[in-house]
């Protein structure tokens, strides 16, 4: 990492000074920015390429969020799906900060907790699939709405793929010496910068299929395909 040329301050020190000036009381505490025992003057070399590659692969491949976004894009278009996309991103950030703060230790101590969350998430996906099957006529379509920002954010805590992504990111790709805020902020920035465009691609793909939904048979076929994809994903979540 590059030190300030004129002041000689380490980049972490710049962040800590900014936190003390602009963030709520306590956020400038050095313990949040580095682990105990780490000297502020130590230079930490971070190669972002492995984490960027991992984030891209996990974000672009099919999963619960991308299947839901494809269906939402097809039924509601990209503009009405944007809160869903941003909600997924916001949920990831909160989840990631929670993992960096030590939430993953709860899963290590009580494995049944993560298993329970997986079952609840699978049930939610099955419910969404059932709703799709019940929305094949114009009257039913008129009463629907896209997933909200808050619903999408909360779903990340029921999504095993999201937990795998955040726990792996927090434990494998960054040194623990960086501490909570720096690790969380660094990873959240990369995840948002890569994840949101990847999710938008899936929503755009669904939006491009809106013409197919104009015909009753096409709409029924699409809803069946999406419901099957959601059901398959639900089974994979709990197997």
Written account of the structure:
- Helix 4 (64-109) crosses helix 7 (149-155) and helix 4 (64-109) packs parallel to helix 10.
- The protein is an all-alpha fold and 239 residues long.
- Residues 1-5 and 14-44 have low confidence and may be disordered.
- The protein contains 10 helices and no strands.
- The protein has 2 domains: 1-45, no CATH class; 47-238, no CATH class.
- The relative contact order is 0.19.
The percentage of residues in β strands lies in under 5%
The biggest beta sheet reads: none
| String of helices and strands | HHHHHHHHHH
Class computed from helices, strands and strand pairing = mainly alpha
Number of domains: 2
Q: Using only CA atoms, what is the Rg? A: 21 Å
Mean pLDDT: 75
Range of helix content: over 70%
Low-confidence stretches: 1-5, 14-44
N-C termini distance = 43 Å
Number of strands: 0
The helix count comes to 10
Shape verdict? globular
How does the SSE layout of this entry go?
Elements: H1 11-22, H2 30-33, H3 49-60, H4 64-109, H5 111-133, H6 138-142, H7 149-155, H8 160-172, H9 180-207, H10 216-238
Helix pairs in contact: 3-9, 4-5, 4-7, 4-8, 4-9, 4-10, 5-10
